[in-house]
Amino acid sequence: MVLAALRRAQVDGPTAVFDLALDRAFDRSIDFAPDADLRTDVPDHLGWPAVEVVADAVLVDLQGVAGRHRPLLAPFVVQACAERWARDHEPTFVRWGGRGTSLHRVDATERAAALSGGGWHGDDPPGDRTVLVPWRCTYLLLEPATERNRVQGLTGLLLHGGTTGAGLGFDFSPMTDHQPSAAPHDDAHFALSLAATRELARVVPVSASVAAEYEGWRHALAGSGATGPEVLPVPLAVDLPTVDDATGQALRDRLGVPGTPLVLVVGDHAPSSNHLGVLHAAELLWRRGLAFHLAIVGRGGADARAVGERAAALRRAGRLVELVDHVAPEDRRALYGLAHVVLHPSLGEAFATTVAEARSCGTPVVTSAFGAMAEAATGGGALLVDPRDARAVADAVERILVVPALHERLASAWADEPVRTWDAYAAEAWSALTGR
Q1: Domain boundary pick from 185, 202, 231
Q2: pTM, two decimal places
Q3: Same structural domain for residues 322 and 350?
Q4: pLDDT tens for residues 50-99?
Q5: How many domains is the chain partitioned into structurally?
Q6: Does residue 276 share a domain with residue 135?
Q7: What is the CATH number of the domain that holds 334?
């Protein structure tokens, strides 16, 4: 629509743009008399919204926060950033209305609803209908823009509205995953989001591994005459709350087998999590005569049914394997503290949260020798393996189970590393996104 208006103005002059705007503002089924005064004869349910020009501000888009097509990390990252930015910088929070054709303010109540997962119902803004017109602003996109009208509106704003944009970058899994998504439309939505991302001035990936993926995509844009955004990675926080002894004991009763080491797996049952591979490697270890208890904490994902069926078959054979749907985020430190080793042979992810959190708790890790998993293991505390080689995975877990000196060395590897807090991440991300 923006490009159409620009072309109309170039051919017929600036006033022609008003004709185009009026044509799009009203339902074409409404007939106005030839002598109608559009200032007074517009139906009440349409009306003229107020317009506010916002200059030199930072706009934080919360539209996608309540959406369905979200990277798994997004809810935690967006909430951590939005809360701290509201406290420290007082940006203008916005959302899209009018089927992705207009921007509107989001007040504190609406922001809280969005960040809690409640979101909005319907297309129109829930409160003030005043349309915001940004000028010389910085627009921050916290999650991929996956709605076609919103992508078109955002692209028009960034190309022709005197505003620059920046966004967080989570992952390229729809493009790089070893198998298609269980919901093909998710892959299509991601591809659509790249049309908006290419017009941003900066993108801030959550890890160096994701940054490499964005750099590769940015290099490919040269074929279409575009340069793409500057890529400025800022790694996520790893800051687990402390827990009391009672919490640890409750988890021990829920998961532990007295006298048997716990091998812990954390993550959903997506194919990339490789939980079927985990169960296969565990069976290899049990057949070698090793005694341990395997617990997989996570739910959802395309492999959930297959993982459940395989785990049930192993239990019928007398294996100590448990599937746990959920452990509260505030209890994760206690969870990692119960484990003798954390097994995380992922096939790909944006930021290996499980690896980073386990290492910060002093729990040895077996993880993949590439991508964000190897990046999170930088500095020690983990054995790196080919996640597709079940024997290699089993061998690494066995070494940690049967060699006390290796377990002790890995457990102490991260003892001197500073804790990276969410305050630090939010501050660094704000600086990278806004250049301020």
Answers
A1: 231
A2: 0.84
A3: yes
A4: 889 999 999 999 886 655 445 556 777 888 898 899 999 989 999 888 77
A5: 2
A6: no
A7: 3.40.50.2000
